[in-house]
Amino acid sequence: MGSVLVDQIGPAGQLLSDFDVRLSNRRKMDLLLQALPGAQEETYSGEQVVRFNDQLILKKQVTHLGIPWPAFKKRIQIPKKWLDVHRQALSDGLTPRFVGIYHYSGVTIFVDFDPSSYMQRKANNSAAHVATNDLFQAQTLGVFSRQDRNGNRLTSVRAAEFSDYLLGVARRLHPRIELFERFNSGLLSSEPVMALDAIKEMHEVQWPDRFQGEWPGFYLEFRFDRFVRQHNLQDRVSFQKAKKRGDFDFDLIFGQPGEADYYGDLKASNLSKSESPGNDAETILECVQTFGRFWYVLYEHETWHGKSQEHAPTIAWNEWRRSVGYQGRNPYNALSYASRFKAAVSYVQMSILEINEANFHLALGQFNQGQQPGGATRAPKVMILKRDIDNFLIYSERVR
Question: So where are the chain's domains?
Answer without folding.
Answer: 6-167, 175-398
